[in-house]
Design a protein that fits this description.
Elements: H1 3-12, H2 23-31, E1 41-46, H3 51-64, E2 69-72, E3 84-86, E4 89-90, H4 93-112, H5 120-134, E5 139-143, E6 160-163, H6 171-174, H7 178-186, E7 194-197, H8 202-214, E8 218-221, E9 227-234, E10 237-244, E11 247-254, H9 260-274, H10 279-287, E12 296-299, E13 309-313, H11 318-330, E14 336-341, H12 348-355, E15 359-364, H13 377-384, E16 389-391, H14 395-403, E17 411-416, H15 418-428
Parallel strand pairs: 1-5, 1-6, 2-5, 6-7, 7-8, 13-17, 14-15, 14-17, 15-16
Antiparallel strand pairs: 2-3, 3-4, 9-10, 10-11, 12-13
Helix pairs in contact: 1-4, 2-5, 3-9, 3-10, 4-5, 7-8, 11-12
Length: 436
Amino acid sequence: MNYEEALAYVANLTKFGINPGLERIEELLRRLGNPQKQGMRFIHITGTNGKGSTSVFTANILAAAGYKTALFSSPHIRSYQERMQINGAPISKARVAALLTEIAPILDQMVAEGFPSPTEFEVCTALALTYFAREQVDFAVMEVGLGGLHDSTNVIDSEIAVITNVAMDHMDYLGNSIAEIAREKAGIIKKNSRVVLGDLTSVALDICQAKAKEMQSEVYHLDEDFFFREKQSNLRGQQFDWQMKAVSYDDVAISLIGKHQLKNASLAIAVANLLGLEESAIRKGLAATKWLCRLEIVRKPSAEKNSPMVIIDGAHNSHGMKALAGALKDLGIEKVHAVLGMLADKEREAALGLILPFCEHAVITKPPVARAGNWQYLGEICKTYGVPYILEEDIALACEKALAGMNSDEILLVAGSLYMAAEARAYFLPDDVILK
């Protein structure tokens, strides 16, 4: 297979949907020689929101410390290659094609022998682990796809598990209460490991701590065992102080905006300290971190061109929208024009209710996946809040229509599904592509 054929093969596996459970991925990995057992050290990161940012912060710190560091994350923004990186470099198209050419007949043989077909995400996980093992990485930072306990990434034996937060999302698969979802996420905690916990409700905290105790694992909890204090926050970045017991760092800098990123960075620093990494690597790794479509400024205001600032954020659920709304408030942004698109399986009323008070006008668009469902329904929610809106199915046209008539004193916010955000980003930054 060439790269395009390989992607088509993977895309065809989406027909198997989301199918929690480890039996298929374990069998596929066994036939691939169990790459997850070939000497890599694993950091496993889950959470309703923030797991991607925390993962990339952690991976960049490890790379800055001199380790050959892999990062597995999803979904991608520019290219499928982004899902598998080593020291910040995405896997090449040729390597994706070669590995999937190798994996496909093994998968087909599994099915021929009566095993259920692995899902698209399970094959992606197997591809990543095989790639990382063959490249002999020191560390692999693995972001959970969905939940934790039954997620395909849970085949790894991690020495540190991170749970960023627990909120209501993916209820069809994870449960209808914080307690049920917390139990799924706590499922990544391994025997005799260490656990870093973020901003958890009391119910989620009790469940995660109980699981850690059962697994005889040490717990380090934000605001109890380690702390951060914001010092400066604006559209150029943020500075904060950090402390864990006798260790403290002043004026730590990150370029990602939004106070929720201070929590994510703090979790990554906690991981680095548990691994005994140097302060210089922590500062260098954090400062170098960029993460696409997370309060990303993709266009600066231009009085000369009479064009507005454009910010893109993949806030795809209530918890994410709450963080986005908080960031806008903290940055002194009172009103925006918006392009909005959310998946039908999200709590759309609750999520949009957090951001619509900031919106002067909205263009409702369709995320480019089947789960978009009745995407036009977001317009009905806009009516409830008295926000004028128009519908435009095509994402590029939605951005174009939102920009019409705006000036350099205004702000365009593109928010919602990461799939939609990725297409909008390509509209504003068409030359930012991965070529190899």
